[in-house]
Amino acid sequence: MAGTRSSARKAASAAASSSPTSSPSQSAAGKDSAPGSKRKGGPTTSPQAKRGRKGGKKEQATIEDTLPNQAIEDESKDTEMKDEPEAPSAESHEPASAEDVSTEKPKQEDSATANGETSEEKPQDATAIEPQQMPEADAKQNGTEEANQSTGGDAVEESPKREESTPSSILEKGIIYFFFRGRVGINEPSDVNDIARSYIILRPLPHGAKLGDGPIGDAGHNRMLALPKKVLPVSPKDRFMTFVEKTNVTMEEIKNSLSASDYMTKTAGSRHTPAAAPIGEGVYAITSTGRETHLAYILTIPGEVSEVQDDVGLRQRGSFVTSAKNPETAAPAGASLPKGAEYPKEILDEFRGRGWMPLEPKLLDYENTQFLIIGHNDDALEKATVPQPDDEKQDKQEPKEELEKLEHEDELRVEHLKGDDTVFEDLGLSSKEYPKLQTTW
Q: In the chain, count of helices (H) and strands (E)?
């Protein structure tokens, strides 16, 4: 039964996760386990981030480069949403008052700013320090060679039967990754105040896809979302703006955005931006429950959430109400990009003059799309996966059942691949250049 966990399954999973590879017998045993049973994540460390690869080029401006100074300064100021109009509620379809749309997190002034430095952001006239290139021998020994990572995956399998049974309320499904980056000069954050920015990476899958063994191949349809609030919403009072920073890009472009970098400032000299650290991987679905849409997820990595995930707001199973902003309506000061998403007329017409509409996957295919993610109190996944009458009439799977089935397939894939290092294998990252998956501060 989907979602069932057994002690025998946990013991087998613990043994599998302690070894970087799985034997054929282990693979066969894993495939007989019930969907939803979880592997146990082993202890992880967070080594210092290495420098980025030479020659990486910037394809487009990042959120940090485009947001106004009053919105992001020293990569520590939280995005304000206090004057947000018509923001929807997680528990009600009625527009929320402006005061309800912002939950301010504790701020911590950067020590460099306190000492009189003007900013830790990259100045326009900054002189970049050329990153050192990893020796070829090291690149071949790191276990995740670039030549094979970004295009060598074959885990996604098309299934007409699966597509037929998938409910229409699942608008999109795929693989999801959660990352955060430490503040300038902080390679190993000791709490959430040391985080500069958090990211969500979405890798959509075909509607009828199922997962086999191996890494996920690069179809070039990847999205990178930026969360200026650094943490995820955990209650209906938490309503945080999220931005589409990159869309329809290859994993090479995502990798360049997550890597470490060094640059020069006039006031502080050489500055180091650490590489982003992974904190979770799993499966997701964008679902519709009628008047609302949700971003629902189930984590595969780590097998059990720890203090880092808990502090950031990640749960083993969770979801957020999602609402997209009309780029033609006014935005709160400091809480929007200088340039909004450039939607075609047919999409703008769907807003019908309103400031917000339920988020749909097609909106995520436009850079600078801005949308709110709103927390739930309890039973978040259940609220996001309520079966719809039309799907029940056609005897479709329940949305929760399909998501759990996909997570079970991902769990087996992870066990047979490289455990927690599957994140690096999937994304084409060198495990020597990025911090290990972090579960403790």
A: 14, 13
Computed from CA positions of residues 377, 104, 102, 281, in that sequence, does the dihedral angle turn out positive or negative?
Answer: negative
d(CA 336, CA 147) in angstroms, rounded, equals: 38
Q: Is residue 153 within a helix (H) or strand (E), and if so which, with residue range?
A: none
Residue 217 exposed, middle or buried by CB count within 10 Å (0-12, 13-18, 19+): middle
Q: Of the candidates 241, 258, 323, which has an alpha carbon nearest to the alpha carbon of residue 56?
A: 258
**Helices 399-416 + 24-31 axis angle, to 10:** 170
Show Cβ contacts of residue 67 under 8 Å, excluding neighbours closer than 6 positions.
79, 228, 334, 337, 338
Separation of alpha carbons 353 and 371, rounded Å? 16
Spatial separation of the C-alpha atoms in residues 148 and 251, rounded to whole Å:
12
Its sign, for the CA torsion 268, 273, 279, 284, is positive
Phi, psi dihedral angles at 195 (to 5 degrees) = -90, 135
What does the block give as tokens for 296?
């629902």
Amino acid (1-letter code) at residue 377? N
Does the pLDDT value for residue 28 go beyond 90?
Answer: no
Helix (H) or strand (E) holding 284: strand 277-288
Q: Does 29 score more than 50 pLDDT?
A: no
Is the pLDDT confidence value at 115 over 60? no
The tens digit of pLDDT for each residue in 182-221 reads 999 888 899 999 999 999 999 999 999 999 999 998 999 9
Cα atoms found within 13 Å of the Cα of residue 381, Cβ hemisphere only: 19
Sort residue 404 into left (φ over 0), alpha (ψ -120 to 50) or beta.
Answer: alpha
| 3-state SS assignment for residue 181 | strand
Q: Report which of 420, 424, 151, 398 is spatially closest to residue 285, judged by C-alpha positions.
A: 398
